[in-house]
Amino acid sequence: MKQTLIILLVLALLIGAFLWSSYNSLVTTNEAVENQWAQVESQYQRRFDLIPNLVESVKGAMSQEQKVFGDIAEARTRYSGASNADAKAEAATELEGALGRLLVIMENYPQLKSLDTVQTLMAQLEGTENRISVERSRYNDSVKTYNLKIKTIPTTWIASTYGFSERSYFEAVSGSEVAPRVDLQ
Amino acid sequence: MKLSFLSALFLLVMVQGVALPASAYYSLGTPDGYVNDYADLLTDTEEAVLEAKLSAHEASTTIELAVVTIQSLGVDTIEGFAVSLFADWGIGKKGTDNGALLLIASEDRAMRIEVGYGLEGDLTDAQTYWIINDGIKPAFQGGSYSQGINDAVDSILLATSGGTLPMPTNQSPFSSGPGEIPEELILVGVGVLYAGLRFLASTKSFWLGGVLGALIGGFIGFLTGQLTAIFIFGSILGLFGLIVDLFASGGGGSGGGSGGGRSSSMSSDRSGGFGGGRSGGFGGGRSGGGGSSGRW
Predict the structure, then answer these.
(1) Between the CA of residue B270 and those of A54, A102, B210, B214, B221, what are the distances in Å?
(2) Potential cystine with A75: which of A94, B14, B131, B134 (Cβ 3.0-4.6 Å)?
(3) Closest-CA residue to A99 (of A78, A63, A73)
(4) Are B289 and B98 in contact (CB under 8 A)?
(5) By three-state DSSP, how is residue B102 classified?
(6) Residue A152: closest CA among chain B residues belongs to which residue?
(7) Residues of chain A contacting B, Cβ within 8 Å
(8) In chain A, where are the structural domains located?
């Protein structure tokens, strides 16, 4: 009788410890994902702050290329108006495309590219693009860690009980692996 | 039956512990000081002078600037390689992230200054761009690696020492890995085990050792924060305790058994800590892709 009691007690303790630590680990990894997303967003913001400077300094010399400036302005407006993370990511992706087009078009203006101010702005923008890609891939890493916990035994039991759901990866922009085509009209 | 259950658990842990497939970065091994000239672009004297300069700078400002030359990037980009190497070595102090990396890939004719999070304000992307394009690039094109590297290092040191110095409280020159076990602790451990064996031998039961082992193992697993560890350590130490108790109850406890027990709980402690990755020299700083790259 006493033996059964001890065994039951030990079992209860083990299960309790298991529940406690698995719940906490889910919360911790979930927070890591949130934190990493904040890093991505702060780099997006940095990009949005830099772009007007670049646009201002090249706009005058590129008067025929109004469409790309219009696209950039529109994407910026949509980003500031975006209410959730998905909409923000979408606007950022759109901006990325427009910015890529602008950079390609700028290749046709060598006198512009040789300006110190333009070069500096381009360097800042390149740095920001690189930061974005670094933070994004770290975001995906943290999502992977989290999703593994959600999907594998034994944490998957706890996850379904407490409503932890799978999170989506930051997909590469479709078409971003190929250089943007320039449409000269 | 027990064995297959255990091996299944081990498999589970291995699946969970699989490292994320990194990009094409290949490890350069442990850093040897601040200057690591794998591509052999500098003479030994130049290296020594540069090393002295960088370590003096670290001593006075705690900023860690690493100069690394490699022959080839493989299939990686210079940006990807730099950020992976930075993370691998942990350049800069932990907490302040005040490190920077000057990476040169000689066959790819590519270079990059990667800036730690903590130095991004002092050493901006634009500054690194000008250091590369006005300093390193012309010197390298003229064939003088030493001049290009030294000019760049001087500019970086100047830019980074202009800012406010980091708090000395954040100074942790070498992160503590799994430390050595003090002798007293070993003596206490042996004493506890001996007492435990005596106790198990004195009880009538042959299973109490198993229960105690499972409890202790589960607790150790719980401390590591790994879920599966609770089960694994619980099962292993439970099984071990059962064997020990069977042995102890059957007559004479053995020293060999207790030795095995201690080392098994030790190795569990070790796998729980995150001490493995830190390599010598640098303090564990992080970077997030700031800086600039160039080619010559």
Answers:
(1) 52, 53, 23, 19, 11
(2) A94
(3) A73
(4) no
(5) strand
(6) B16
(7) 3, 6-7, 10, 13-14, 17-18, 20-22, 24-25, 39, 43, 119-121, 123-124, 126-128, 130-135, 141, 144, 148, 152-155
(8) 26-162
**3-class DSSP state of B132:** helix
Tokens 């102890």: give the residue.
Answer: B248
CATH topology assigned to domain A26-162: de novo design (two linked rop proteins) (1.20.1440)
Is the pTM for the entire model greater than 0.80? no
Write out the residues of chain B at the interface with chain A, using a CB-CB cutoff of 8 A. 12, 15-16, 20, 79, 83, 124-126, 128-130, 133, 205, 207, 211, 214-215, 218-219, 222, 225-228, 230-231, 234, 288-293
Q: What is the pLDDT along chain B (296 residues), one digit of tens a residue?
A: 444 554 554 444 444 433 333 457 888 888 888 999 999 999 999 999 999 999 999 998 899 999 999 999 988 889 999 999 999 999 999 888 999 999 999 999 999 999 999 998 888 888 899 999 888 999 999 989 999 999 999 999 988 877 433 333 333 333 333 444 556 666 676 777 777 777 767 776 777 777 777 787 777 777 766 667 777 777 877 787 777 777 666 644 343 333 333 333 333 333 322 223 344 578 888 888 888 888 88
Where are chain B's structural domains? Answer: 35-171+279-295, 179-277
Q: Quick one: CATH architecture of B35-171+279-295?
A: Roll (3.10)
